[in-house]
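#struct-pred

JT: dropping the chains for the assembly here, can someone run the whole complex?
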Amino acid sequence: MRELDEVLAAGLAAREEGMPDAAPAGVLGRVVGRVRHNRARRHALQGVTAFVAAVVLGGAGWWSLHRDVPEPAVTPEPTTSAPTPTSAPSPTGTPEEPMPTPEMVEVQGLPSLPKASPELVTTATSGWVLATYVLSDRDWYDSPDFPATVRTLLLVSPDGERFHLLDLPLDKDVHVERWEAGTSFADARVYDDAGGWVWLRIDLLNGEITEAGTPSPPVETPYPEHNLGWSWDGRRVVAYYDDPGIDGYTYPETAVYLRAFDGTQTRVQAVTWLNRFGGEPVLDPSGTRLLF
Amino acid sequence: MPGAWQPALEQLVTERYGRLVARAMLLTGSRADAEDLVQDALVATFSGRARFRAVEPAEQYVRRAMATRFVDRTRRASRERSALDAAVAGSSDSPTDDLRTEVETAMSRLAPRVRACVYLRHFEGLSVAETAGALGISDGAVKRYTSDGLGELGVLLRARWRSSDGSVPVVPTGEVGRDA
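RK: done, full complex below.
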């Protein structure tokens, strides 16, 4: 009589031998599209995520919502790759200082934009935001590299009036993450070729982009970190999977860290079951709580 | 713009898709269903926070996700249709029947949850506790389903299987294909 182990192994091997390695044409695009859709939907739902647990960051208590926390980051990204017609800009919402007639800048796909002056940047108040305008002649679906023909940073008033701030590198996928209205710099990140990213600081007055912060000691995990946002006190909030080991079927632990610009980082929370449900911690806009 | 998760996903789909489908066919019995299952598992794995630097752990997750999603599917199917075995386990008049290997045919005769236990324990090498965690059932249930499943496979494939304690399970043929 045959041994069952050998029969089962031979059956699987026979099936595998008859299979081509690669998926049929179109499968990759469909799967990537579905993943992108799901991830985008999940991020869009962050604001209405039902919270099972909440973690208070940096030792701040529940009362912290009542304290005078900094304005949350308001830098939507990425913006549309297709231009939309706009009405004539309204002068309302601009700083009170009278401004000279601004220089106009031509940006492909947009109406002529007034150039943002340094004074406009440094006197902007709450409600002004930065927006990245990206134009590409190809869709990400067809081109994973997403080559941009235009990648421009705009300053937008509370009424939607757009100003040209600076042009970002076309060959770098720069994501602006944080800007506090009235400051002259923005924090950003850029993806590297290995699929990770580095943190950047953009000087909004001269367009200079530099790497920001002291690298923290790497966390021992094979998975890259996930940037969740910024804590109320200006530290980055990142999460890692802890390595479950390839041989085991233990779901990885999701560990959340606070990372300061000086390179120090603090482990504040770990949850084991998150990945099972495809969950991801969500940082509330005030930067004080994590919702799971 | 490419996400950090994309390289591992692309590598899986371009280099290991066939192997994933081959394993999924142990669960579904048909190639079309297996492809659907693989794609669902890929989407589920990478829609979360998975950004695997290496393709091996990503493949491990997908292979295990196939089993959990297979069981989820059968649960949904059981709510929607009373004839669970005919709908999920595959019927004898399936047009793909003649293309199945004998192992796939035998696996398709197992109840879905039994099949998932055998798949995870035997083909993926998971421990009892790991299998229980993946499928959301008790350790005892895993042991029972796995023992029953391998015993049934032994009968169907006319092969000998010895459990860890050396005993040879005796499975009445009348129980073959029962629902779990």
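JT: nice. Chain B touches chain A through 62 residues (CB under 8 Å). The radius of gyration of chain B is 17 Å.
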